[in-house]
């Protein structure tokens, strides 16, 4: 397991799946904001890639996020779009609604940076998020990500086009927390 100061990132366990499906992916607004695709429900027992992990897929590493203290499930974190030629990847995360706003997201980003830069030897990490997602923007910026651009009206979300912000962090800029 990867450890931050408050969170652990571990493999997806079977018992995580109903909790993530109900609390995260059944939520139409959350799903529409987090996925760059139209929301659709996940049938219980299906092998939907949002929940089920394919360990043979080299470009995508999904984790379940747990509290270091007590081990309760907090959400998901993913290193995706891994490009071993240009040594870059994207990061994504989603916390259960009751677990937001308590500093976990900032710590998850820190752990994903450690995984990307130290464990995987990557050179660049990237995040795309909606321009009004202040918690995600702050979680990224607290870890050194810088805003590199605005993708104007790039996301169709619940009846309107929204801007997305692209943030990047290079290995040599990253300052791991002690
Ligand atoms: C985005 C998300 C991962 C952030 O994690 P979090 O645990 O809620 O964020 P933190 O508690 O670490 O807070 C990070 C910063 O954002 C601020 N913040 C938190 N919630 C906020 C809110 N609703 N509005 C404005 N700022 C907020 C915090 O004050 C903190 O700022 P600070 O460092 O200056 O004190 C989490 O809110 C989430 O899962 N949201 C839904 C899914 C999502 O949007 N995923 C990202 C898709 S790209």
From TrEMBL:
Keyword Repeat on entry: no
SUPFAM superfamilies tied to this protein: Acyl-CoA N-acyltransferases (Nat) (SSF55729)
GO MF annotation, one: transferase activity
EC number of the protein: 2.-.-.-
Stored Pfam families: Acetyltransf_3
UniProt keywords, alphabetically: Transferase
First-level EC class: transferase
TM regions (residue ranges): none
InterPro entries: Acyl_CoA_acyltransferase (IPR016181), GNAT_dom (IPR000182), Ribosomal_N-acetyltransferase (IPR051908)
Stretches assigned to the N-acetyltransferase domain: 18-163
PANTHER family: RIBOSOMAL-PROTEIN-SERINE ACETYLTRANSFERASE
Listed name of the protein: GNAT family protein
């Amino acid at each position: 397991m990867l450890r931050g100061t408050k969170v652990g990132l571990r493999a997806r366990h079977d018992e995580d799946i109903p909790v993530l499906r109900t609390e995260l992916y059944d939520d139409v607004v959350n799903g529409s904001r987090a996925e760059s695709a139209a929301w659709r429900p996940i049938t219980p027992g299906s092998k939907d890639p949002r929940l089920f992990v394919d360990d043979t897929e080299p470009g995508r590493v999904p984790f379940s996020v747990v509290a270091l203290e007590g081990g309760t499930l907090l959400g998901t974190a993913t290193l995706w779009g891994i490009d071993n030629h240009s040594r870059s990847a994207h990061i994504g995360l989603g916390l259960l609604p009751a677990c937001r706003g308590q500093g976990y997201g900032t710590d998850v980003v820190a752990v994903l940076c450690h995984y990307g830069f130290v464990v995987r030897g990557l050179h660049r990490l990237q995040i795309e998020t909606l321009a009004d997602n202040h918690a995600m923007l702050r979680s990224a910026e607290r870890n050194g990500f810088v805003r590199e651009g605005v993708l104007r009206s790039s996301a169709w979300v619940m009846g309107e086009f929204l801007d997305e912000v692209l943030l990047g962090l290079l290995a040599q800029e990253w300052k791991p927390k002690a």
